[in-house]
TrEMBL record:
It comes from Candidatus Caldatribacterium californiense. Keywords: Cell membrane, Membrane, Transmembrane, Transmembrane helix, Transport. Its main location: membrane. This is Sugar ABC transporter permease. The chain crosses the membrane at residues 20-41, 79-102, 109-134, 162-191, 212-230, 273-293. Signal peptide: none annotated. It is found in: Cell membrane. One of its GO terms (cellular component) is plasma membrane. Belongs to the binding-protein-dependent transport system permease family.
Amino acid sequence: MKDGGKLYQKDISEYRMKLLFIGPTILVLIVMNVFPLIWSLGLSFTNYSSLVSRKISFVGFANYARILSDPLIWKYFQITARLVIVAVGVEFLLGFGLALLLKERFRGWGLVTTLMLIPMMLSPVVVGLFWTFIMDANFGLLNFLFSLFGLRRVLWLTDPKIALYSIALVDIWMWTPFVMLISLTGLLAIPQSLYEAADIDMASFWFKFRRITLPLVSPLLILAVLFRVIDAFKMFDLVFIMTGGGPGDVTETISMSLYRLAFNKFKTGESCAMAYIILILVIALSNLLIRWIQRTRA
């Protein structure tokens, strides 16, 4: 009984020690994450403004109704969706293609892989700034290279037909290595014995790709797409640095619209409501992709 009591006391002391270490972290997470979420949710049902000193009134779902009935907001959602589809689609194809090329080891494989990962390690603000210089209509490197081949200059960031795709191009340059890294991880984890067995049966490259490579790596591919869709849907820094939502509003993503509502118009309550609408959409998209992953695994 004494031994049992000592073990029980030891378990309790270990449990308390764990709480002592984990407790402050949980408290910080609650203060830094949970509290702001609850506070902003409450503000989304009011007419609160961070600039105007007035009595805060409860307005119910009026902020949500105003946002969802605004045709401009739906236009910005369409712009964001177009940007996400183009950027993530190309990142998926290029990233997976590069991973297939890097699957086979060669001399200098580590150096090449490391160099290809550099863009995703850079700050988005830095990337936006130097690509703005590269795409400058008068003094940019791209137009200089075009002029060497006798091509006319392109208004990368000021042409309404091109500006959105210029931002997508920069996002592709920056985040294709991320998709490549996750895809390469999945490809390298596939047992080599499966390919050896297929080679014995004289299977073609297409058969091995369709029956071995794609099914085994598809969960990780969908996971990479999930991360990129969530991140691209919230894209703000590149748009803010490169075009500021212009020319006109052709690159006005939903995050840029949220920024203007909160920090230009100072409609804090309405901007909180808009933030929660974006959050709900991102969660819905995430759940769809997660279900797709589960179905793929099954």
